[in-house]
Task: inverse folding
């Protein structure tokens, strides 16, 4: 005799799994209205006995939506009439050999669940039909009519492919075992594989016990998506879980991907130098070759490095930065390559991964590269050649996949001549050189940058500004900016704090910019005075010697300059 009760353990795995994954309550009821399996909340809210006329109604109809529980024809005579705890319920009959033997239910007792099931009724009904089919297959397997199989695996593969949300299911070790159709599409869009997600996700399970699992946005920094992690428990034992990205986010992300100009386009500037820089960075963004960014302090080398990373296919993995000038030499190797437990006094218990491991599959940014200690340079060169590291105190070789972007404000070729930098490392780093121009070399970008920083700094000051006064902009444009874009950003933030009105005026600028303006004016006056003196001297000499070729040669000799220089000065000074 076919019996749902005989298959209760296997059916319970299906019901528990589908309930945990979809965040709904579920139940299986036999044809006599008795509960076979259910979630705990379903049992608490509706009890072990279900209104038989309702069950018979579904058994005869096959599928049914109860969108007004307690107020429908099938509810007449039910003890919950007009006061049903359920907000919405989807029901489907379970058939074996075309005979209905029970009903499977997806139910929500919350307004949020009611909205979700009502909005996506067709999708959830498809899922329910597949669950019903799975239970039928379980029964047929138990009665010997089918070969044994793993119902939970088939449930995941069959049911989840009908869901518009992206689902990745994982085992108790954090390994992704299945990705539904929406998830496969998302991963393809991001150039990722399920194995990549496993590697990202496993660290978040480090504190996992058999009783609980942290629920968090586990991959938000890697996949750039709000991912919910939900545990799946069977008999109070953790057997795995599901990672979910909502269909709403997927749709929004797709629109933003089509509309976004990319992170490189966020680099502010319209000068020829900046246009060339962005074009070059765009061409090499997906390359695995090392990049060496040069430029003066404060030009935005780190900003460019991160923009290249975020525009690349590695953007969904870490961007890890290390300042080679700020770490003591004794700790540098440990910071870069990590260390094993007991490697040295004070070594962290259990060991610690270095920056290379932290940046695996992503980008490692080595700032102030010229300050890296010489002994470390040799080890870095070996890593760049072999793409394998060893932790301090360790013997295990760890393969890595990291793109290196280095930056320096020093002339590495001069350091090589001084024996302070290895030539072979320089050539390994300098595969793709990119120079960031000083702000003084692209003054046409000053206004755009100032307005951009004005917008950015509004959040820090909590004030709204209408703009920057024209006279203020003139002062900004005439200043020589030794600190480059970093100095300009600081100046704008300073002015926003000092300004009492809603427009940045010259009085709110730092004193050094105002004194620089006076100095520039004074210098201009001096240059004009010198030009006047030169013109007077040349005219007097021409009057003495004449303005023909012979006279001009004598003028040049008297003034101690060449004849060509004299002609240039005559033209520059407007002397005919």
Result:
């Amino acid at each position: 005799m076919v019996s749902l009760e005989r298959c209760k353990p296997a059916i319970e795995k299906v019901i528990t799994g589908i309930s945990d994954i979809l965040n709904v309550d579920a139940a299986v009821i036999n044809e006599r209205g008795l509960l076979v399996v259910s979630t705990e909340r379903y049992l608490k809210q509706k009890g072990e006995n279900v209104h038989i006329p309702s069950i018979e109604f579904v058994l005869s109809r096959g599928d049914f939506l109860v969108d007004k529980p307690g107020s429908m024809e099938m509810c007449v005579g039910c003890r919950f009439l007009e006061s049903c705890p359920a907000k919405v319920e989807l029901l489907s009959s379970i058939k074996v050999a075309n005979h209905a033997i029970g009903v499977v239910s997806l139910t929500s007792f919350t307004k949020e669940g009611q909205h979700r099931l009502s909005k996506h009724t067709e999708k959830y009904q498809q899922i329910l039909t597949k669950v019903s089919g799975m239970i039928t297959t379980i029964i047929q397997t138990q009665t010997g009519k089918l070969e044994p199989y793993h119902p939970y695996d088939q449930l995941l593969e069959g049911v989840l492919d009908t869901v518009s949300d992206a689902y990745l299911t994982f085992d108790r070790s954090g390994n992704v075992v299945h990705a539904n159709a929406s998830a496969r599409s998302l991963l393809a869009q991001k150039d990722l594989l399920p194995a990549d997600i496993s590697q990202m996700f496993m660290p978040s399970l480090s504190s996992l016990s058999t009783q609980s699992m942290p629920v968090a946005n586990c991959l938000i920094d890697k996949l750039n998506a709000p991912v919910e992690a939900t545990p799946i428990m069977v008999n109070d034992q953790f057997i795995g879980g599901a990672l979910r990205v909502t269909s709403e986010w997927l749709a929004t992300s797709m629109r933003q991907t089509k509309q976004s100009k990319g992170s490189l386009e966020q680099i502010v500037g319209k000068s020829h130098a900046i246009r060339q820089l962005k074009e070059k960075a765009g061409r090499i963004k997906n390359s695995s070759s090392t990049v060496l960014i040069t430029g003066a302090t404060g030009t935005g080398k780190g900003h460019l490095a991160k923009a290249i990373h975020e525009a690349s296919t590695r953007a969904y993995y870490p961007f890890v930065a290390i300042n080679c000038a700020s770490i003591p030499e004794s700790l540098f190797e440990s910071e870069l390559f990590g260390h094993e437990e007991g490697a040295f006094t004070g070594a962290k218990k259990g060991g610690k991964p270095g920056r290379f491991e932290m940046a695996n599959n992503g980008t490692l940014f080595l700032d102030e590269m010229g300050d890296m200690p010489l002994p470390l340079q040799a080890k870095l060169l070996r890593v760049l050649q072999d793409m394998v590291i060893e932790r301090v105190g360790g013997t295990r070789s760890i393969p890595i996949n990291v793109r290196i972007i280095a930056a320096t404000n020093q002339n590495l070729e001069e350091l090589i001549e001084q024996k302070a930098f290895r030539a072979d490392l320089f050539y390994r780093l300098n595969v793709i050189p990119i120079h960031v121009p000083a702000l003084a070399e692209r003054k046409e970008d000053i206004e755009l940058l100032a307005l951009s920083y004005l917008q950015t700094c509004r959040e820090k000051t909590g004030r709204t500004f209408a703009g920057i006064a024209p006279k203020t902009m003139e002062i900004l444009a005439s200043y020589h900016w030794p600190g480059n874009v970093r100095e300009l950003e600081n100046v704008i933030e300073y002015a926003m704090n000092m300004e009492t009105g809603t427009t940045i005026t010259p009085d709110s600028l730092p004193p050094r910019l105002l004194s620089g303006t006076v100095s520039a004016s004074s210098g201009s006056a001096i240059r004009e005075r010198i030009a006047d003196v030169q013109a007077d001297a040349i005219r007097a000499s021409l009057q003495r010697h004449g303005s023909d070729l012979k006279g001009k040669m004598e003028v040049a000799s008297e003034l101690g300059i060449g004849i060509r220089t004299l002609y240039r000065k005559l033209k520059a000074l407007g002397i005919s």
Remarks:
- Residues 441-509 form a domain with the Helicase, Ruva Protein; domain 3 fold (CATH 1.10.8.60).
